[in-house]
Amino acid sequence: MRLLSFSALLLTSLCASADYSTHPKAAGLIDELVASGGYQRAELVALLRAAQRRPALIESERKAPEKTRTWPEYRAIFLQPDRIEGGVAYLREHADSFERAEARFGVPAALIAAIIGVETRYGGYTGPHRVLDSLATQGFEHPSRSPFFFSEFREFLLLCKERDLDPLTVSGSYAGAMGLPQFMPSNYRRLALDFDNNGEINLWTPADAIGSAGHYLTRYLGEGRDWQRGQPVAYPVDLKRPETLDFNARRPEQRWAELRDQVSGLPAALRPEQAVGLLSLDRGQDQEYWLALPNFYSIMSYNPRVYYAMAVHQLSQAIASAAGRPH
Questions:
Q1: Gyration radius of the chain over CA positions
Q2: Which of 81, 108, 278, 314 is least surrounded by CB atoms within 10 angstroms?
Q3: Exposure of 160 by Cβ count < 10 A (0-12 exposed, 13-18 middle, 19+ buried)?
Q4: Percentage of the chain modeled with pLDDT above 70
Q5: d(Cα 156, Cα 162) in Å, to the nearest integer?
Q6: Contact at 8 Å (CB) between 303 and 276?
Q7: 78-102: buried (b, 16+ CB within 10 Å) or exposed (e) per residue?
């Protein structure tokens, strides 16, 4: 995808419904990107004028299903026969890429498939929104997460210049995530791989998406908190006094020795120093409890919501079972 000519940018800007080039935060962004050597000032002004204001995307972000539904409602979206069967077919169709990714990163092929399955139905739906509009609207106007999205808007513009992408035509999610594995621009720049070795990183192609998703789980968090090869993800458990416990942290903040007197039904032995966390999933009238291990939080690096990570985990198990793979 090639960058449009400057004249085309100006023509597009004339049809825009918003002009972010006059926003108080725009001047600093323009100065920074011009200083980086990649953009001309007039080119950036034209892009900011071309960005469409889409306030409905902010509402979509704030009302995402993982924030508003019970666990059974959320689980039902993804643990469907067609999504499981699609994962098995995707594993078989791209067996070489999955085998290489699992061998290199230690992330099970079925789990990588589940991520792509949850994110985009194995590439069937990568998002209809122009990323320029999504990130400009969220970055300039989101009431609580504007700094995050503004940073991603900057990263998107840098990505487009680096990868020779046309910022007026790249599409993705309401949050600005792109490609089969739905990477945000900063992670596209930092973690995406040319896994088919064709000289181009393209997350709309299966091989690059598969390899990049595996790489993401082993490089995103750092500091020894990334995916642990051969280790489990989480176990369903019973708790003696759940009202005394803490749940749903973003990291495994406790040790097994601190919790083992409270937990029953664990099907495996754990070391006393094993890092763990407790999960509570709202079933409407009651709660479902799980003991999460570090690999669960590695999945959460993709989306920091417990329901999301659990859906990926359970879909991966269902895909592996249907494909006759260990899980």
A1: 21
A2: 81
A3: buried
A4: 93
A5: 10
A6: no
A7: beeeebbebbbebbeebeebbebbb
CA angle 89, 177, 13 (to 5 degrees): 130
Residues 96, 173: Cα–Cα separation, whole Å:
28
Distance CA 236, CA 287 (A): 12
Query: Would you call 119 a catalytic residue per the annotation?
Result: yes
Indicate the angle between helix axes 26-35 and 41-50, nearest 10 degrees.
Answer: 140
- What is the token pair recorded at 28? 């600093």
Find the helix packing angle between 109-120 and 81-93, rounded to 10°.
120
Q: Which two tokens stand for residue 295?
A: 């690999």
Residue 43's nearest CA partner among 15, 94, 3 is: 3
Catalytically annotated residue among 43, 61, 102, 119: 119
DSSP state of 243: G
Burial class (CB in 10 A: 0-12, 13-18, 19+), 23: middle
Q: Report which of 299, 248, 290, 257 is spatially closest to residue 275, judged by C-alpha positions.
A: 257
In this structure, the chain runs to a length of 327
Residue 284, both tokens: 């409407």
Contacts of 72 (CB under 8 A, 6+ apart): 283, 284
Residue of 187, 184, 159, 163 lying closest to 173 (CA atoms): 184
- The SS3 call for residue 31 is helix
What is the tens place of the pLDDT at every residue in 118-136? 999 999 999 999 999 999 9
CB 179 within 8 A of CB 127: no
**Among candidates 257, 258, 249, which has minimal Cα distance to 296?**
249
d(CA 262, CA 245): 9
> pLDDT tens-digit profile of 143-191?
999 999 999 999 999 999 999 999 999 999 999 999 999 999 999 999 9
